[in-house]
Design goal:
With 280 residues, the chain is of the alpha/beta class. The chain is 49% helix and 12% strand. It has 2 domains: 4-112 and 178-200 and 245-278, Rossmann fold, CATH 3.40.50; 121-173.
């Protein structure tokens, strides 16, 4: 009988972290974060990172495990997450994967096997001078299939795809292994107007809590302007209006990604009582 692993996904600001804590208390669980930016130390306010108080005594993993000065890859994430799941289960507890980075979640849950291609700093530097449109055209000449299904606005991912294609000759198709665990997938969503209000409230809170000071602190620690731009719109010349608009665009992309997975059980985040039923 396969061991049970819970997975809580969904758009930003829908209450995933709070539900993960409640569920962990019910099932003797520990939480594994699946957020591509909360892995970085110092990116607290801009990423909405859960606080010690909000953790309510529940152990959380894969938060603050990398320096923001260097890129942390999905390959690195998968290795750490796989080990954490094994460790949690070995101690008689239940793993709960929680986060909104779909690629991170799928890498673990679907057993995706990813090519281990070393970074090419010289190539990255050259490509960073190109626009998204120009980069997409370069990728298209190398691998039409990958160019057709990649996010055309995600410059970092396009550059990585070009890097892989040049190293291997093409971007290999993503393959999946057989799931080792029984993954119970829970998706949270909110009606558009409610989500918009929650995002606006969260962003206002970010600025009140010192987002701009957090950015200055990152700069003083040696994080370059170029790297700040890569870390997301919250960390590059942020204004409340821009961060709200970009967050809502990101939320749409999150939902597009997760909706492809027909195994996710979707619920509105205002009615989370199902967590107690599904955990039995």
């Amino acid at each position: 009988m396969k061991k049970k692993v819970f997975v809580i996904v969904g758009q930003t600001a829908t209450g995933k972290s709070a539900l993960a804590v409640k569920l962990a208390k019910k099932v003797n669980g520990e939480v594994i974060s699946a957020d591509s930016r909360q892995v970085y130390k110092g990116l607290d306010i801009g990423t909405g990172k859960i606080s010690k108080k909000e953790m309510s005594g529940i152990t959380h993993h894969l938060i603050d495990v990398a320096t923001p000065k260097k890129r942390f890859t999905v390959v690195e994430y998968k290795k750490l997450a796989d080990k954490k799941i094994e460790d949690i289960i070995a101690r008689g507890k239940t793993p709960i994967i929680c986060g909104g980075t779909g690629f991170y979640v799928d890498a673990v849950v679907k057993g995706i096997l990813l090519p281990e291609v070393p970074p090419n700093s010289k190539l990255r530097k050259q490509l960073s001078l190109q626009s998204e449109v120009e980069l997409l055209e370069i990728l298209r000449t190398l691998d039409k299939t990958r160019a057709s299904n990649i996010d055309p606005r995600n410059k970092i991912r396009i550059i990585r795809a070009i890097e892989i294609a040049k190293y291997l000759g093409k971007v290999p198709p993503i393959t999946q292994g057989s799931p080792v665990y029984e993954f119970i997938k829970i998706g949270l969503h909110l009606p558009p107007e409610m989500l918009k209000k929650k995002v606006a409230k969260r962003v206002t809170g970010m600025f009140k809590d010192g987002l701009e000071k957090e950015i200055e602190k990152l700069k003083k620690s040696g994080v370059s302007d170029k790297r700040l731009r890569e870390l997301g719109f919250e960390y590059w010349q942020p204004t409340e209006e821009r961060v709200v608009n970009e967050t809502l665009k990101y939320a749409k992309r999150q939902m597009t990604w997760f909706k492809r997975d027909k195994q996710i059980l979707w619920f509105t985040s205002v009615s989370a009582s199902y967590a107690y039923t599904i955990s039995r």
